[in-house]
Amino acid sequence: MEISGMTQVLGLFGDPVLYSLSPAMHNAACSYLQLPYVYIPFRVEKNDLPAAVAAIRALNIKGVNITVPHKEAVIPFLDQLDESARRCGAVNTIINNDGVLTGYNTDGVGFIDSLREADFNPAGKKAVILGAGGAARAVGSALVDSGVKEILIINRTVAKAERLARLLDQHVRFQQLILGSTLELADIDIIINTLSIPFKEQGEWLLNFTSAQRTLFYDLRYGQMPSDFLTFAKTINAPALDGLGMLLHQGARAFSLFTGKEAPLAVMRSALAL
Ligand code: ATR
């Protein structure tokens, strides 16, 4: 990629960013479409976030993705929020329009895009979400917006599950995560794991499932090692997806916001080695 006076900067703010796949994905797309952008990972520590956001304006950075731990903390420093970010209280993409910074969230819609790509239409379906943090909020609000019929939120801290249930919809149910308990999945179409802990600890599953063969198991995490959650799905021949599809599609949506162009999905997918 040639750097010239025309080159505009895109980037990622997070901590850590060392192993992020976003730079490879976005730079491959920019090169393929011969767009004058370069996408740089910036490790931004918590205390430096206000200065980093000010630098977007000062350096005329065109847009950035925001990742852990800044997705919520960045909101007070922006000029406005798109509905996608307001709804789930988190930002994963900032667009700089002549110094006006707008926060978007493409995680939820990226999640739905990845489901549709796997021929799963959430409308009218029953879902279970494990966890009630930021990722659960993005996924839950996207499911509600896509016409899901029912959601059950299961979380260690009941107050957080209750808060998320209230935020999403009055019909969303919640219950406490009791380690080692059994969950009946007979009429559940999809179960999404957003927990930040391994699904198996010292040989014990966090939860046991019965009648799960037709349920789609979706783990928001991705990586070289299959997660225990997805390993379980495979042992019972249930359909399973990891978080790479969501990474791809949230990136594709962000790319369109950055550049105004349709994202070259195949190019971005091969940059992720999917
Ligand atoms: P994110 O924003 O990525 O979703 P998060 O907000 O830290 O991450 O949420 C992580 C999820 O993992 C939460 O649902 C959390 O449960 P609590 O709300 O009870 O904190 C869950 N989690 C983290 N550590 C856990 C543990 N040791 N046992 C059970 N659940 C845990």
Report on the structure:
With 274 residues, the chain is α/β, with parallel strands linked by helices. The protein has two domains: 8-105 and 246-271, Rossmann fold, CATH 3.40.50; 108-242, Rossmann fold, CATH 3.40.50.720. It has helices at 22-32, 49-58, 83-88, 107-117, 134-145, 158-168, 228-235, 244-259, 265-271, and strands spanning 8-14, 37-43, 63-66, 80-81, 93-97, 100-104, 126-130, 150-155, 173-176, 181-184, 190-193, 200-201, 204-205, 207-210, 216-219, 240-241. It has a six-stranded mixed β-sheet, with helices on both faces. It has a six-stranded parallel β-sheet with strand order 9-8-7-11-15-16, sandwiched between helices. A two-stranded parallel ribbon has the order 10-14. Helix 4 (107-117) packs across helix 5. The model has no long low-confidence stretch (mean pLDDT 96).
> Mind telling me the C-alpha Rg?
19 Å
Shape: globular
**Distance N terminus to C terminus?**
23 Å
β-strand amount: 15-25%
The total count of strands amounts to 16
- CATH architecture classification name of the largest domain: 3-Layer(aba) Sandwich
CATH topology of the largest domain: Rossmann fold
